[in-house]
Amino acid sequence: MRIGYPCINRSIHCTASHTFRLASYTGERLRETVTANLACLEKILRYNHEHGLLFFRITSDLVPFASHPICTFPWQEHFAGEFRRIGEFIRKNGFRISMHPDQFVLLNAPDEGVFQRSIADLVYQTQVLDLMGLDATAKVQIHVGGVYGDKRLSMDRFAEKYTLLDEVIKNRLVIENDERLYTIRDCLELHDRTGIPVIADSFHHALNNKGERFADLLEPLRETWKGRDGIPMVDYSSQEPGKRVGAHAEHIVLEDFRQFLKETLLADIDIMLEIKDKEKSALLALAAARDDARLITRIPAHA
DNA sequence: AATGGTCAAGTCAGC
DNA sequence: GCTGACTTGACCATT
Q: Which CATH number fits domain A3-288: 3.20.20.150, 3.10.180.10, 1.20.1300.10, 3.40.50.1970?
């Protein structure tokens, strides 16, 4: 089991999410920005390595406008050496890596233009992981998409579109339940139809479910990850008190997280903490998990 | 140098 | 019909 956090580290003064306005695009500006982003990504990974946080989500902003027609700079070739070096660091230290395209990536969009732009973004995200030389355990997670007035048809469309994808993308793509439209059950059904692994978000599940206990879904979820996909990834968060339902917490609530660990005790999973103070909460979670592990080892093997 | 409005892209819910 | 939310952050024009 590895524990991690997404995209941003608040302890070091370095972000891999530098961007700029579309109107400011030049090849030179892109080169400068990506140079800075890759340098920061490496620093963040070094911090994570030193602190035992071995699950990390790479920001989609790493190469700004990478999937936009304006981007003609050959960043893949220009930064091939840097990507390879970072990839070696990742592999050498046993990191698990994910990426998460944002809300504009919709495989099941009825609009062909939206679909094509989504493909372009998935190509970009998989290229980043490919350039790092990462195997199929490094995943790109998306949601099922919109409902467009007919959930049944929209799920059918997802399954159809998925089968059209290039193998390079299929090797990395996983689907995640969301807090309003598609449940873990829906994702598992799409797995049955397409073979796509399912990444569960425990917080979204708490907000959108058909009465299933999260712990009871762990085994069906695990079965969607084949050997080369690695162990299942799970996103974890909790409700920020006093805010809109679904708002991610600012800080981890350790009591809740310990309960979550207890429920998932027997499942070997990598846990991503979607908590706003990022590595700060991840470190507390890691300490809690290590406490738990010590408790577990006291249980006799044949008990 | 500080700040607040704005930023490539889509969809849905709630007003 | 508009606004805010999504993994919320970072840019940049204006002061």
A: 3.20.20.150
**CA-CA distance, A300 to A136, in Å (whole number)?**
35
pLDDT in tens, A149-160: 999 999 999 999
Q: Which nucleotide has the least CA–C1' distance to A248?
A: C7
What is the model's pTM?
0.94
A100 CB-to-strand C distance under 7 Å: yes
Q: Which nucleotide is nearest to A22 (CA to C1')?
A: B8
Per-residue pLDDT tens over the stretch A26-52? 999 999 999 999 999 999 999 999 999
A:117-146 Cβ neighbours of strand C under 7 Å: none
* Residue A237, both tokens: 């968060």
Q: Answer whether any strand B atom is within 7 A of the Cβ of A113.
A: yes
Please give the nucleotide, over all strands, whose C1' is closest to the CA of residue A275. C7
